[in-house]
Design a protein that fits this description.
Elements: E1 3-6, E2 12-16, H1 18-27, E3 30-34, E4 39-42, E5 53-58, E6 63-70, E7 73-81, H2 84-103, H3 125-144, E8 147-155, H4 159-163, H5 170-174, H6 180-189, E9 204-208, E10 223-227, H7 228-234, H8 239-242, H9 247-258, H10 262-279, E11 284-289, H11 290-300, H12 306-311, E12 322-323, E13 329-333, E14 342-344, E15 350-353, E16 368-373, E17 380-387, E18 393-398, E19 401-407, E20 411-415, E21 420-423
Parallel strand pairs: 1-4, 5-8, 7-12, 7-13, 8-11
Antiparallel strand pairs: 1-2, 3-4, 5-6, 6-7, 9-10, 13-21, 14-15, 16-17, 16-20, 17-18, 18-19
Length: about 425
C-alpha cells in the first residue's frame, strides 16, 4: 500500500511508495504525522502534485469499501465497518428503561415527543451514522491525498431496469450488462445458496418460482436461485406441487419471495443523503449501480471484497487494474463513548457510577497505545485500543484478544482517540 504524504505546510502530495517512505524516515527527511491512516510529512519539501486521484466508495449497510485510484492503479484501500446496529440497540435499551420507569410510577421527566417535529430529510440515527462516518473519511483522506473526483455506488440494484427492460433502451439491458442487475439482487436476497436444498458453493441458476408455462410473471418477486439438480427436478411444476411434502420450506420460500432486503433498504434510505453530502465537497461525483460494479470486478478477475468492489465502481475504470495494495486498512467505528452519568442494571436502577474525569494519567478510553511490558507475568509488546481505569491499571484490546491489567507506566501513545479502531 502506498503511504499518504504531505509537505512541510501539511498540504497533500502524491502518495509515496512504502519503500521510499521508509527511506525518508530513516534518513530523517520525514516524520510520521499520523499512524492511522499512515501519513508522513516531508520536512523540507514544499511541492505540487503531478497526478490526479479518484476516491471510490462502495457504501454498504454494515461495511463500506474505500479505494484510491489513479489511472490504472489502486494505491490505497480500506474497509469501514459501521456501528448502525449497535446504535439501534442502544436506543432501544434507553427506550425500554424509560418506559419501565414510567410504568412503575417513579420520578421521571414528562415525555416530550409530541412537542417535536422532524426536519425534512430526517434519517434515523443508525442510518445517519453511515452518512456521517463516510463523510468524515472522505474529508480526512482529502487532507492527506490530492483527490480530484469521487465515484460512488448510488444504487445497489437498478429496480426499474429489472422490471422494465425498455426503460433506458434495449442496448443497455441486452448488452454487456444483461442479467447482472437481476442476478446480483437474487444472490443477495437468497443468501447465495439454492432455495430448495440450501447447497452453497455450487453453480446456481435463476429459477421461476411459478413457472412461465403456468402463467408466472418474469418479475424479480417470482425469481429465485436453484442448483442444476433442483432446477431440473422442478421443471415446470408449480412450487406448491414440487414442495407438497415440505410445507415448512414452501412457506418460507413464498414469504422470502415477497420480503425486501433489510440491508438494501438501509442503503437505499441513505444513498441520496450521502450523494448530497459528497456533492457539497465541490468535487465531481460519478455514480454507478451494483450490477455495473460486479461486471467490472468480474471482467478484472478480482475477488469479492468490499474495497475491491469500491475500486470497480462506475465507468471510470481502465481495461486492466493494477492492485498495488496487499491488505486494506480495517476501520471499525467505535463511537466516542457515552454521556450516561451512571450504569444501570436490567431493571433500570443505578448500579455503578461513571468517573467524572475521563483522563487517567494522560490517557483516556479509546486511545491507541503501545505497551512494552518488561517484568511480571505479562512480559511482551501489546498494541491496541486502551480502556482506562482510575487505578492506573489499563486493559488493551489487541488483534489477539483483550489483555487486562497493564500498568500505565508501560503505555505510550500511538494515536489519540478519534472514534475508530484500526487493524491491518
Amino acid at each position: 500500500m502506498f503511504v499518504l504524504t504531505v509537505d512541510k505546510n501539511r498540504n497533500s502530495l502524491n502518495p509515496t511508495h512504502a519503500a521510499r517512505a521508509r527511506r525518508f524516515l530513516k534518513e530523517g527527511r520525514a516524520v510520521v504525522l499520523r499512524r492511522y491512516p499512515f501519513t508522513i510529512m516531508l520536512k523540507e519539501v514544499e511541492g505540487s502534485n503531478a497526478l490526479e486521484y479518484r476516491l471510490k466508495l462502495d457504501p454498504g449497510s454494515k461495511t463500506t469499501g474505500i479505494a484510491v485510484v489513479t489511472d490504472d492503479r489502486v494505491i490505497w484501500g480500506a474497509e469501514l465497518h459501521h456501528r448502525g446496529y449497535s446504535i439501534k440497540q442502544s436506543l432501544e435499551s434507553r427506550r425500554a428503561l424509560r418506559r419501565g420507569r414510567r410504568n412503575r410510577h417513579t420520578r421521571y421527566r414528562q415525555p416530550r415527543f409530541d412537542n417535536r417535529a422532524r426536519a425534512d430529510g430526517w434519517l434515523a440515527p443508525s442510518l445517519q451514522h453511515r452518512v456521517l462516518t463516510i463523510k468524515t473519511w472522505v474529508e480526512r483522506l482529502r487532507r492527506f491525498c490530492p483527490i480530484s473526483a469521487i465515484s460512488m455506488e448510488l444504487v445497489r440494484f437498478d429496480i426499474q431496469l429489472m422490471q422494465n427492460p425498455e426503460v433506458s433502451g434495449v442496448l443497455y439491458q441486452q448488452g454487456e450488462l444483461v442479467g447482472y442487475e437481476v442476478r446480483e439482487y437474487l444472490l443477495e436476497k437468497w443468501g447465495r445458496k439454492c432455495a430448495y436444498c440450501h447447497k452453497e458453493g455450487v453453480p446456481l441458476e435463476v429459477e421461476h418460482i411459478q413457472p412461465r408455462s403456468k402463467g408466472g410473471p418474469n418479475r424479480v418477486s417470482n425469481l429465485t436461485l436453484a442448483c442444476t439438480k433442483c432446477n431440473q427436478r422442478k421443471g415446470n411444476k408449480p412450487v406448491e406441487q414440487f414442495l407438497s411434502r415440505k410445507p415448512e420450506l414452501l412457506k418460507g420460500i413464498l414469504a422470502a419471495a415477497k420480503r425486501p432486503l433489510k440491508d438494501a433498504a438501509a442503503v437505499n434510505s441513505t444513498r441520496w443523503a450521502l450523494y448530497r453530502a459528497l456533492k457539497q465537497t465541490g468535487l465531481a461525483v460519478e455514480t454507478g449501480t451494483g450490477g455495473r460494479t460486479k461486471f467490472n470486478r468480474t471482467s478484472q478477475e478480482l475477488p469479492k471484497t468490499h474495497w475491491l468492489d469500491a475500486a470497480c465502481v462506475g465507468s471510470s475504470i481502465s481495461e486492466r487494474l493494477k492492485v498495488l495494495v496487499a491488505k486494506p486498512l480495517a476501520i471499525t467505528a467505535t463511537g466516542h463513548g457515552t454521556r450516561q452519568m451512571c450504569r444501570t442494571d436490567k431493571f433500570g436502577f443505578p448500579s455503578r457510577y461513571v468517573p467524572r474525569y475521563k483522563f487517567v494519567k494522560s490517557f483516556q478510553t479509546g486511545d491507541i497505545v503501545k505497551a512494552i511490558v518488561t517484568v511480571g507475568k505479562k512480559i511482551g509488546t501489546y498494541v491496541g485500543r486502551v480502556a482506562v481505569r482510575s487505578t492506573g491499571s489499563f486493559n488493551i484490546s489487541t488483534v489477539n484478544g483483550l489483555i487486562q491489567g497493564i500498568s500505565h507506566k508501560y503505555c505510550k501513545h500511538i494515536q489519540k482517540k478519534d472514534g475508530y479502531s484500526y487493524a491491518h
